[in-house]
Amino acid sequence: MATEAEPAAGRTSAVRDWASGCLDEIVDDLAVLVDTETPSTDPVLLAAGAAVLTGWVLETWTGSTATTLGAGPGAVLQVDAPGSRDGTVVLLGHLDTVFEAGTVAARPFTVTDGVARGPGVFDMKAGLVVGVYAVAALDALGVARPSVRLLVNADEEVGSLGSRSSLVDAAAGAEAVLVLEPGAVAGTVKTARKGVGLWTVTATGVGAHAGLDPEAGASAVHALAALTSYLAGLADPAAGTTVNVGVLTGGTRPNVVADHARMEIDVRARTDAEAARVTAALAAWRPADPRVRIEIAGGWNRPPWSTPAPGMVARAEAVLASLGVAVDPREVGGASDGNILAAAGLPVLDGLGASGGGAHAEHEHVVVADLPVRIALLAGLIAPDGS
Ligand SMILES: [Zn+2]
């Protein structure tokens, strides 16, 4: 309806223009976050990083309050910015990065030719910046919005095992969960993510001399080699199911029948049905030689997320259209904590952080000029009916 679409379009471009007007400040804030190292594996640096993040959000969001849910590696920072109408939108992010301490000293935050680089800049320090500035923009422009609850964990890159229950509890009842994981281009939204299953299989066989007494042995290595072929056969590329035996070790010497072997498996599935099929097939497998004992540990670290919240992609498309940017919905193989909250029944849209590329790699980067568009997109999703 033109009567509603036009003010909305004006609002969206006002947010973009507001963000463009303070782009230097936005980049300065991003620099501080990137240069504050937060490896998933370093509790001291994570605590210091959480303090920096908390101070910055509280200062930027007038009237907001912060609390910490849980403790230790699973601690979740929650910042609430009360809104001018009922309802709560959750912004979901993570503070941790895959880069070890000392990476910043080797390659600190830089901006060259409009491209920002530095450890964690894309995944997802710039996403946190997009989230914080989207709310700041709405408030600076006096746009009505629901309450916003920012949830930031620090164990996302290592599976969110300690934080997931806090995330689910704190997001309960949200009208939308907007995930600040990176996008690719200015119009990217992520509408589905495969689930990730992780298993470790250990095999215990019977050692023996490979030449003198081979029948006395039962090879754990041969058993897991057979399992590797079996697992490869479970993949179904057309259905989106992949199976990767990423680690396979065992045995001691060529002339010894191996009495031990171990493998680590990564399975990706687009649907719950496929996840269940692979899980059941793995559980049903038995070694050909019954003297080999196997132990299987693991499961679905994040379940498949295949259904974006109804209407949210259309909403993103409308917001972007008012900026002259085409929406670019993507289904991806990597999971995020959006999978966990979608499985909890919440309406999720993901990939709303910065545009750029190279996640988890040295060439990780963010396109600075797109940040105002990404901020405007997120603001339009937070306050679809704001005026
Ligand atoms: Zn991430």
Automatic annotation (TrEMBL):
Domain Peptidase M20 dimerisation stretches: 191-285
Keyword Lyase: no
Entries under InterPro entries matching the protein: Bact_exopeptidase_dim_dom, Pept_M20_glutamate_carboxypep, Peptidase_M20, Peptidase_M20_dimer, Peptidase_M20A
Coiled-coil segments: none
Domain of life the protein comes from: Bacteria
Keywords per UniProt: Hydrolase, Metal-binding
Protein name: M20 family metallopeptidase
Pfam assignment, any one: M20_dimer
SUPFAM superfamilies named among the record's database cross-references: Bacterial exopeptidase dimerisation domain, Zn-dependent exopeptidases
Species of origin: Actinomycetospora straminea
